[in-house]
Prior knowledge:
Layout (H helix, E strand, L loop, with lengths): L2 H30 L3 H9 L4 H27 L7 H15 L6 H9 L6 H33 L6 H33 L7 H4 L7 H28 L6 H17 L11 H10 L2 H4 L5 H27 L8
Amino acid sequence: MSLKSTKKIGFWLKTAVLAGLVAYIVYVLRQQHFDWTLVQQQLRSVRHPERWALGLVLLTPLNWGFEALKWQILLQRVEPTTFRAAYRGVLAGLSLGFALPAQLGDTAGRVLSLRTSARAEAIGASLVSGGMQFYVALVFGTVAWLHYLAVVPERNNTAGQWLLALLVVLSLLGVVFGLVRQRLIGWLSTRPRLHRFARYWAVGGQYDGREIGRGLVVAALRYLVFSLQFYVAMRLVGVALPPDAAASGIGVVFLVKTITPAFNLLSDLGVREAAALWVFAPFDQTAGTVPAPVLITVTLTLWLVNILIPVLIGLLLVWRLTWSVR
């Protein structure tokens, strides 16, 4: 299959998925009718909304600060760098990731921010960083889905149980991969067709247990911070679910967002909205009222504060990048 044909298939696949997400969101909103009056009533019902808004804003640099710390830890094998420089690289990657699919933009922004000739090796460090965050979201998401099935009995069916089993297996496979990663990377490097790419992932086999452990701890702390941001955004618009129900719902939403590649030019916009509408819909009966317009307001607020504003800041850094990889 030619590269041109592959690109066309990828484009139409992304378009179909994005259209499906938008159609689902529109369908739910048409069922409940998006009512700005309802959203305004919710906002007026919140006591001291400025405190929740301030908390949401202040958690944003902490969120990306943990990501920068993880990047700094993993980058030591390639180029020792400062926390400030790592933070700049993360923001540049976030901005490029806004326009490029999957992890391509994020990796490009981070790698091109380095002042080293070992940018190719840094690609491997970026992949490890993304893999760590993915695995943490998978493990936390598995626990969240387990609790979600208990909180929402109608989702505790055969499909839900099979999904739980699959998530458990994937979480355990992550442990197995961590134990055999060095041998696996060494074996891949000996394959004739893959040998030329070995320099990109070789660094993944150089990390010791301490570095991997530190990276995973920081990834877990970041996960907890942006989960807290989601909860704060909910409280900002007057959604006050029981903490355990909110935690399980948030965990499932982030699990869906994590395993769903970016299919559009606006990062994960649309994925989180569709996931939140599906996840929190049963809570109308089990844990309070969560109208669709209010949920959309929550996710858009979170996207605005946690993604769009840092992206605009990162754009200033993108212009200063040197566009070459050696």
